[in-house]
Structure formats: structure tokens, C-alpha cells
Specification:
A hairpin with a 5-residue loop joins strand 5 (about 85-95) and strand 6. It contains one helix and eleven strands, in the order H-E-E-E-E-E-E-E-E-E-E-E. The longest helix has about 30 residues, at about 1-35. With about 170 residues, it is α+β, with helices and mostly antiparallel strands. The strands form three sheets. A five-stranded antiparallel β-sheet has the order 1-11-4-8-7, with no helix packed on it. The chain has one helix spanning about 1-35, and strands at about 40-45, 50, 55-65, 70-80, 85-95, 100-110, 120, 125-135, 140-150, 155-160, 160-170.
């Protein structure tokens, strides 16, 4: 009888150890899947998937390493019923020494045949991260404030769910 109880206890212990080892493996695997060198990555949801031209999406990026080059990406998440193939944006950057740099950019959300470029993850939402600037070298440490607003010809732009900013340090 004692041997049977010992076997049952050993099975349970082995089962628990297997589960713990499996969970640790999953945690290690998932943590290795994260992108390295990400300095900043944030996304702002737009209420009711509507973007008023007067509503800016603001991000504050803290830069301390001025010797490193950075790659900036803008994330756009759009609905499948977004009525345009492109998106014009105004991007302002306020530097730590209060200089404002303004840029106007256009991103194409679908190809020449009308197929959305972004990955579809949730229903009819398509997510695309566009390269905004490559090999950016910041001149001084501090907080860089990015402000993104839509530059389309309508006061309210329908079908844009999120706008985001991603800053990655470039290592060679």
C-alpha cells in the first residue's frame, strides 16, 4: 500500500514539475520573441475610429543616447471600410531646446489593386507600421515630443482606429 501511495505522489510531483518547466519554457520563448532595441513603442486608440483634423496624437520620447542612430516608424491601424488608399499626416517634433520640426508625409494603406497592405488581426482591422525616418541621430538628450495629425481633406476622417509611434535604436 505504501508503494502505491509513493507512486501516486511521485506522479503528481513529476506532473507539477513538467508543468512548471513548460511554463518557464513558454515565458523564455515569448521573451526572446520581443524586438530588441525598442526605445519607444506606443499606440493611441481613436474614439469610434474617427479622427478629427484638430485632434493631434501626442507622444513623448525620452532620448539619452545621442551617439546612437534611430529608426522611427508610424503605426496605422485602419478598418477595412476606410474609404481611401492613402493617408496624409502632419508630424511635428518638438526638441528639448524648443525647436519645432514639421513634416508632411503620405503612406499608402493598400496596393494598386485595392488590397490592404497591413496585417489583419482583429476582424476587419489592418495594422501597418510605416518607416517614417531612418538613421536619425538626436542632437541632445531629453524629451522629444511628437505630434501627429491627419492631413486629409476632411474635418473628420473615418476608419482609422489607432495611430502609433515606434522608435528603435539601430545597432550594426
Amino acid at each position: 500500500m505504501v508503494k502505491i501511495i509513493d507512486k501516486i505522489i511521485m506522479r503528481r510531483v513529476n506532473n507539477i514539475l513538467f508543468k512548471v518547466a513548460f511554463i518557464l519554457f513558454i515565458i523564455m520563448f515569448c521573451s526572446s520573441c520581443t524586438e530588441k532595441n525598442v526605445v519607444f513603442n506606443d499606440s493611441y486608440p481613436l474614439s469610434n475610429y474617427e479622427w478629427n483634423k484638430n485632434n493631434c496624437v501626442d507622444f513623448s520620447v525620452d532620448i539619452q543616447d545621442t551617439a546612437t542612430y534611430y529608426r522611427l516608424g508610424i503605426l496605422v491601424r485602419n478598418e477595412g471600410n476606410y474609404q481611401y488608399s492613402n493617408l496624409w499626416l502632419f508630424v511635428d517634433c518638438l526638441t528639448p531646446d524648443s525647436i519645432v520640426v514639421t513634416d508632411t508625409v503620405q503612406f499608402f494603406l493598400c496596393d494598386d489593386y485595392g488590397k490592404w497592405i497591413g496585417k489583419s488581426s482583429i476582424g476587419s482591422l489592418y495594422t501597418t507600421t510605416f518607416l517614417y525616418q531612418d538613421s536619425v541621430k538626436y542632437s541632445m538628450p531629453g524629451s522629444y515630443k511628437y505630434s501627429i495629425s491627419q492631413a486629409m481633406r476632411h474635418d473628420i476622417l473615418y476608419g482609422i482606429a489607432n495611430i502609433g509611434l515606434k522608435v528603435v535604436s539601430i545597432t550594426e
